[in-house]
Specification:
Blueprint: E1 4-8, H1 14-22, E2 30-34, H2 36-44, E3 50-54, E4 64-73, E5 80-84, E6 93-96, H3 101-115, E7 120-123, H4 128-134, E8 137-141, H5 143-146, E9 156-159, H6 160-168, E10 172-179, H7 186-200, H8 203-214, H9 218-228, E11 230-232, H10 235-254
Parallel strand pairs: 1-2, 1-3, 6-7, 6-8
Antiparallel strand pairs: 3-10, 4-10, 4-11, 5-8, 5-9
Amino acid sequence: MKPRVCAVSYLNTVPLVWGMLHGEQKGMFELVFRVPAECADMLSAGEVDIGILPVYELAGKPFQTVPGLGIACRGEVRSIRLVSKVPVGAIRTLAADASSRTSVQLARVVLERRYGVRPAVRRHAPDLPAMLEAADAALLIGDPALRIVPEELPYKVYDLGAEWLSMTGLPMVFAMWAGRAEAITPEVVEAFHSSWRFGMERMEEIAAGESGRRGFSPGLVREYLTSNIRHRLGEEEERGMQLFLEYAAAASGASSGTSGS
């Protein structure tokens, strides 16, 4: 029986699954596509064997990860952006696309530790005008965030990858492949790495296909996937991830009265 794998429908995951869709790994796995939080819920419920999980979901869970592979950045990420209609120190409410709980926690960490504010977080569909009607600031994740052109907005836009690097000097890890220990075999690990390598070797093909499908320019797709996003994780990424989990745990304890995370 094929392992069932939950992948993410965002652009940043495309190279990871390109081989599973078009290469030698095609047919090895049963792929389903969801947002990150749903992948985490499906894995916890036993509905899939492996999923791309927000790292915040890994804390305290009995899952094993595929080593050395995930979604990270070192600096500007472009796909996790906080847009504020008030000065950052005056943010009291945050409308958040909660499709990735790691990104919501990252916003909380940055706002508290860098700017000294603890806004109430409200779950909201990723519609920027509606979000800013409902709250002081908005958190957009994934493709909706990539559609923002900060220079065209009358608001302050914060790139949370860049904010994290300024705070810590470390990369930010957003997600990793994870699953039940018996599902993460050496063969599976090699297949996942091979699928990603296959994708990175065919970046022009990805840029052409995904630009048409998502309404981005080929140049944006190429730059985002080769300059903003990192998929290979090393020691620095591990340190950044552990520090984030430490900060997120403290922020969660201090924000127990908020909702929508």
